[in-house]
Amino acid sequence: xxxIKLYKKEFIKDRxxxxxxxxxxxxxxxxxxxRIGYWTPGIPTFVLIVTIFGFxxxxxxxxxxxxxxxxxxxxxxxxxxxxxxxxxxxxxxxxWFITEFGTYILLLGAYTIVILLGEVRGIDTINNALYSAMxxxxxxxxxxxxxxxxxxxxxxxxxxxxxYTVGSTVKRFKFWAGAISFIGSIGALFYLSNKxxxxxxxxxxxxxxxxxxxxxxxxxxxxxxxxxxxADLVSFISxxxxxVDILALLIxxxxxxxxxxxxxxxxxNVVEV
Amino acid sequence: MxxxxxxxxxxxxxxxxxxxxxxxxxxxxxxxxxLLGPNGSGKTTMLKLIAGLxxxxxxxxxxxxxxxxxxxxxxxxxxxxxxxIYRWMTVRQAIDYVSSFYEDFDHDKARRLIELMNIEMxxxxxxxxxxxxERLKLVLTMSRNAELILLDEPLGGIDPTSRDKIVYAIAxxxxxxxxxxxxxxxxxxxxxxxxxxxxFLKSGQIALYGSADELREKYNGSVEDIFKxxxx
Lengths: 273, 232
Known about the structure:
- The structure holds two protein chains of two kinds.
- Chain A has helices at residues 2-34, 43-72, 76-81, 86-121, 128-167, 174-199, 216-225, 234-239, 246-269; strands at 205-209, 241-245.
- Chain A is mainly alpha-helical.
- A two-stranded antiparallel sheet of chain A has the order 1-2.
- In chain A, helix 5 (128-167) packs across helix 6.
- By secondary structure, chain B is an alpha/beta fold.
- Chain B has a single domain (3-80, 146-230), classed as 3-Layer(aba) Sandwich (Rossmann fold), CATH 3.40.50.
- Chain B is 33% helix and 27% strand.
- Chain B is built from eight helices and nine strands.
- The model of chain B has no long low-confidence stretch (mean pLDDT 92).
């Protein structure tokens, strides 16, 4: 219940900028879409890819800001006076961060595919069959990237919130305490996951073929259908795989969960105004 | 009488400076304690420790038998000496937000106090003048029927003509039974009529403590006169 109140506060604080950003994004996409065929091919897609990159950096900065703002304006007096658990405070900030930047990046990703496919459609040598195969592949890539993207956002948020909280436990050298915590946490998790991968049993290393997902077969058929070129994508069809070591993934996840609860405990028991 | 607050050997150190050095205190139900001392004497530190906004270096704090934490915060109302309300909120949003966390928040009291203080409900907190902002903080604190109320410099930033209004608000809206209040201030004259007991802090230690009436009688003067004598 407290989590919902705190989350609502985060939403109300950012709702105007959130709405305006979404409107600007959509307007930009419509503008870029209207420029397909007028601008040099590739430019509209490139602009959106750069925008996604920019939003990724903004997300990184923003997740520090969501805690920093409380301290900068003395609102941490109110935040820490509330009869709530540290996990509710950090959880609300984390979930709002994922909501806000998840929406931005998912939307920008979708817009990029729309623009990319719009540009591809204008290329004379691409027939309908090839276009539809590429569209299927593009949307499937988008679909399978959603979960990893949300995972990365959540991980970034936890790292930022925990390192800011660690920095807040000291009166001097806050920045350095936070930076050491940030880099140290990543370093420790890398070290641990690498060590774990060395001893991880083979059955924990899962490989998933992306051949079907990326519709290589459809693309090959489409390429060969016009008789101009003879494409052989068999190596792509069988060779596009993504490997995940489940044990290493569990270590990373446990590390992030641990960092979150450590930061929650610090906020309740150590951090001072 | 039941004790609301107990401090035992309370110490707080910042670096090499002892902000508080061995405070023992008991505050009972219905009591209003004036926590007096010059700047840097440890008043704010003591209130922060009681409110759970800072941690003691040594010693013990019990609020109705509970250590400071989320549970004690549900029954403790703190008015800090800084502007801590979100500037982007309207007065209405600030009241809704704060009240949603406390079962003891009394909306009728809040309405009365808002009227008394002449605060515009739809005004942004960031647009309030310093005095108005102080008044809003007081409304948010005094609207609660908290067991322990901590006011840190409630008259700070308030013009002299409005101080009577603030003191009146504190006196009329304070729930005298089952509650205790600690008022930290160095503007003694305007508020001393409220004190049952006074505690003079000097360099983190108790310089003088006792019943306000008894001390007035003993020193043959007002609490402000005693303040000047103690800190001369």
